[in-house]
C-alpha cells in the first residue's frame, strides 16, 4: 500500500464483506481520508447526518478492518468541516467549508407556511445585505432550521458578494472568545474581527443574555456594524421580549429591524422535507413510509432526520423489509432517544379541562358549545404535537371520532395560530405548562 488513500480503499473493500454495496455507497460516498497519525486514522465527512451515522453504526467495522490491516488497534476520528478547517489551519470565523458544502442552502431548505416569512427575509438579506431588514432576527424552537437559514445566507452572500467578509459565530462562542481574548490580552484583535465584519451572523444569541461583559461588548459591536451599514442576522430560541436577562438597550436594538419566527412544519411540509432528505441520501422508500413518518414525527426537523437515519439503519439490518412495524420502531426510538418528555393524552386532556373549565367527559364527548369545541380542538392538536399518537388513536380518546375529524381540528388550530397571535400565545402557554409537569 502506497498511501493513506490505499489504506482507506482497503478498509472499504473489507467493509464490503459485511455490508451491502448500497449501504457503503449511501453512507461512505462523502467520506474522504485526511491523515494517519501515530495511533489514529483521521477521516472527514461534511454531511453531519452521515458522519453521525458512521460514528454510531459503522465505527466498529472500520476499526476491525484497520486492525486487520495493521494488526494493531487504531482510533478513528471523523472530522466535520469546522474541525477539518481547524486541522488545516483555516480561520474558524469563516464557515468556509460549510459554505462550500451544498447541504445548507436556500435550495435545500423546504418552504412551508410556518417558515416562508423567515425564508423570504433570509433570501432578501442575502440578496441585498443591509438594504431592507437590519438586523434580521429569526427565532423559533430547536431543530426548525434557523442555523440552516444562516448558512444559506452565508452561502449566497459568498457567491454573490465576494468582497463581503462573512463572520459567523454562536452566541456562547462569542462569550468564550471574548473571555479568552481578555485573558490573552488580545482584545483588540477580537474587536477588530467582529467590528470589521462585512456581515455578522450570530447563531443562538440568547446565550449572551445575563452575561454583563459579553452584552457590553456585543452592544458596541452591534452599533459599529449597524451605523456603518453592515448587515446583522441573529437567531434565537425565543423572541427578544422573552429574554428576561437581556439588557434593554440590546432588546430594543434586536427588535428594531425585522423579526420573523419559524414554527414546526405542518404535515405537507414535513412530508416534503422527508422526501428531500431521502433524495439527498440517495434512497427511495415507499410513499406510505414517508407519510407515516410525517404523521408521527411532528416536533421538529432534526427528529425527522433522526428517524430517517434510524430507518435506514434498520433497512440495512433487515434487508428491504421496511414495513410499518419497523417504521413505528424507528419513530419510537427517535422520540425516546431525543429525551423529550412525552406526556400522556390524559395529562394533556386533564390540564386543558382545568384551563378551560370543562369537565373531562364533556371534553371527550360530543357537546358542541363554543368553549368545549375550542378546548377539544386544542387538546387534539397538542396530543398530536406532544405525543406520537396516530390520528386514529387520538380519535379514540375523543369518543371514537374518526381520523378526518381529528385532522380537521388540527388544521383549524394550525390556521388560527397563524392568524391570531393571542390564540397562538394561549396554545404556547398551555404547552409550556404541560411540559413543566414532567
Ligand atoms: N425547512 C427545512 N428544510 C430542510 N431541512 C431543514 C428545514 N428545517 C430544518 N432542517 C434541517 O434540520 C436540521 C436542524 O436544523 P437547524 O440546525 O438549522 O435547526 P435550529 O433551528 O438552528 O436548531 P437549534 O436552535 O437547536 O440550533 C438541519 O439538518 C437542517 O438542515
TrEMBL record:
It comes from the Bacteria. Residues 316-438 are annotated as: Domain IV, binds dsDNA. The keyword Nucleotide-binding applies. InterPro entries: AAA+_ATPase (IPR003593), Chromosome_initiator_DnaA (IPR001957), Chromosome_initiator_DnaA-like (IPR020591), Chromosome_initiator_DnaA_CS (IPR018312), DnaA_C (IPR013159), DnaA_dom (IPR013317), DnaA_N_dom (IPR024633), DnaA_N_sf (IPR038454). GO terms for cellular component: cytoplasm; plasma membrane. Oligomerizes as a right-handed, spiral filament on DNA at oriC. Domain I is involved in oligomerization and binding regulators, domain II is flexibile and of varying length in different bacteria, domain III forms the AAA+ region, while domain IV binds dsDNA. Plays an essential role in the initiation and regulation of chromosomal replication. ATP-DnaA binds to the origin of replication (oriC) to initiate formation of the DNA replication initiation complex once per cell cycle. Binds the DnaA box (a 9 base pair repeat at the origin) and separates the double-stranded (ds)DNA. Forms a right-handed helical filament on oriC DNA; dsDNA binds to the exterior of the filament while single-stranded (ss)DNA is stabiized in the filament's interior. This is Chromosomal replication initiator protein DnaA. The gene is dnaA.
Amino acid at each position: 500500500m502506497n498511501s493513506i488513500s490505499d489504506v482507506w480503499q482497503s478498509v472499504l473493500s473489507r467493509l464490503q464483506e459485511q455490508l451491502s454495496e448500497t449501504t457503503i455507497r449511501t453512507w461512505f460516498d462523502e467520506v474522504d481520508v485526511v491523515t494517519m497519525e501515530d495511533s489514529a486514522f483521521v477521516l472527514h465527512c461534511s454531511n453531519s447526518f452521515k458522519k453521525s451515522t458512521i460514528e454510531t453504526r459503522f465505527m466498529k467495522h472500520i476499526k476491525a478492518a484497520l486492525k486487520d490491516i495493521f494488526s494493531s488497534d487504531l482510533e478513528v476520528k471523523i472530522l466535520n468541516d469546522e474541525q477539518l478547517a481547524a486541522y488545516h489551519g483555516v480561520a474558524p470565523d469563516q464557515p468556509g467549508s460549510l459554505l462550500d458544502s451544498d447541504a445548507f442552502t436556500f435550495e435545500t431548505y423546504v418552504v412551508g407556511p410556518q417558515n416562508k416569512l423567515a425564508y423570504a427575509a433570509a433570501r432578501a438579506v442575502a440578496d441585498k445585505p443591509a438594504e431592507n431588514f437590519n438586523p434580521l432576527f429569526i427565532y423559533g424552537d430547536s431543530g426548525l432550521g434557523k442555523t440552516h437559514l444562516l448558512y444559506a445566507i452565508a452561502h449566497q452572500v459568498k457567491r454573490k458578494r465576494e468582497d463581503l467578509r462573512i463572520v459567523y459565530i454562536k452566541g456562547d462562542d462569542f462569550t468564550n472568545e471574548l473571555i479568552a481574548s481578555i485573558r490573552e490580552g488580545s482584545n483588540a484583535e477580537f474587536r477588530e474581527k467582529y467590528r470589521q465584519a462585512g456581515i455578522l451572523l450570530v447563531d443562538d444569541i440568547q446565550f449572551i443574555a445575563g452575561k454583563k461583559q459579553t452584552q457590553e461588548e456585543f452592544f458596541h459591536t452591534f452599533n459599529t456594524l449597524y451605523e456603518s451599514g453592515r448587515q446583522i442576522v441573529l437567531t434565537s430560541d425565543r423572541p427578544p421580549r422573552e429574554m428576561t436577562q437581556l439588557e434593554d438597550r440590546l432588546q430594543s436594538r434586536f427588535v428594531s429591524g425585522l423579526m420573523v419566527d419559524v414554527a414546526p412544519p405542518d404535515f405537507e411540509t414535513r412530508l416534503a422535507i422527508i422526501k428531500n432528505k431521502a433524495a439527498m441520501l440517495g434512497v427511495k422508500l415507499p410513499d406510505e413510509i414517508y407519510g407515516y413518518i410525517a404523521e408521527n414525527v411532528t416536533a421538529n426537523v432534526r427528529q425527522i432526520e433522526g428517524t430517517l437515519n434510524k430507518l435506514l439503519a434498520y433497512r440495512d439490518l433487515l434487508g428491504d423489509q421496511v414495513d410499518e412495524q419497523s417504521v413505528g420502531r424507528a419513530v419510537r426510538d427517535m422520540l425516546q432517544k431525543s429525551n423529550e418528555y412525552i406526556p400522556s393524552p390524559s395529562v394533556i386532556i386533564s390540564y386543558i379541562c382545568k384551563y378551560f373549565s370543562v369537565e373531562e367527559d364533556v371534553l371527550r364527548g360530543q357537546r358542541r358549545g363554543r368553549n368545549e369545541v375550542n378546548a377539544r380542538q386544542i387538546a387534539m392538536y397538542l396530543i398530536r404535537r406532544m405525543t406520537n399518537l396516530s390520528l386514529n388513536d387520538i380519535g379514540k380518546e375523543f369518543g371514537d371520532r374518526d381520523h378526518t375529524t381529528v385532522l380537521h381540528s388540527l388544521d383549524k388550530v394550525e390556521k388560527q395560530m397563524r392568524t391570531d397571535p393571542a390564540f397562538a400565545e394561549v396554545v404556547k402557554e398551555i404547552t409550556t405548562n404541560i411540559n413543566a409537569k414532567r
